[in-house]
Structures are given as structure tokens and as C-alpha cells.
User: Fold DUF4178 domain-containing protein from Streptomyces katrae.
Amino acid sequence: MPPPRVRPRIRILDTVLRNLLAYGVLTCALLAMTGGWDPQRHDARPVPAVYDADISEIVGTWRCVDGTEVVFRADGSADVTLLDGQDRDYAAGWRLSGPGSWRLTGRQPFDRTLGQHLRLRLPAPTATAARAGTGPPAGAPQRYAWTFELRRDERGALELYFGFFLGTGPARGSYVLEKDA
Assistant:
């Protein structure tokens, strides 16, 4: 008995659907490999890398919400006041204060973005506090290090920032320090 005949329209439709599926999978794979699509990244707006920051732009007093203040000195020392943890540590609610040290990195990729970064180390916090609405600070570390990413605002002024997670979900925010004028 001869095999049943397949109608040409069904064969064409089948070929088109297979090709679309194959091209779709290939496109997703290429985007993921080139960094054009990252399903784990939730901030849709890319931040341009900063490569031209100078130490003189960093030296001074930087502030954020709820009394956060970081004073960067030209000799690489720093005074930290009520700085929250970064990334998933933010959800713990502790805030650290004390003397530390900092350095501006070179032009190599680090962590999530390209460009320069500022590394701040606090070897032994002299005080801990709780962020408003989080209860007593539990599990504050005995030493801590932050990695600030750099970006420029619409006026060209430098901003230091790091990301943090809101609770246990994937939602992220940005903790931005701005320099006093």
C-alpha cells in the first residue's frame, strides 16, 4: 500500500513554522551571548560607563537619604555615616558608620558594568543603626566593603551608586550618593 499523500499546503506551513522556531531560538541565544538580553537583569535603561573620573571629583562629602554621609579624602581615607548594605544586604536593614578607606579602580570591567568603580572598605564599624521601619539591626557585619558604580547626571556631575534588592524578590533599586556643592 502506498504512503498517504501529504497536502502541499500543510508541508509548506510545517516548514515555515519549523524555520520560525529555529530562528527564534537562534536569536535568543545570540542576544544572551552578546549581552543584549539578560533575563536576570531588571533595569531596562543601560547606564553609560564612566572612564574619565578623576580623584578630585571624588574627594569631598557625599550624601544620600536618611542621614547617609560619606567623606572621601585625597589620602584614600574616608568617614562613613549610616551607609546601608548593598545588593541583598540592604534588606537586612543595618546601617554602618566608622572610618574606612577607598580607591578608584581603573578602566576594567567589574561586577555588572564596564568603566571605573569606587571601592570603599570599612574594616571595623564603630557604630551600627537600623534603617527606619526595619527593627533592630540584626546581623550587622564586623567589616564591610561596598563597590560603587559611577555615572554622570544630565548636568555631567558624577554620581556614585550601587544596586540593592527590595526584599526577597527580583525588584531592584539604586542607592545614589550625590556630592555636596
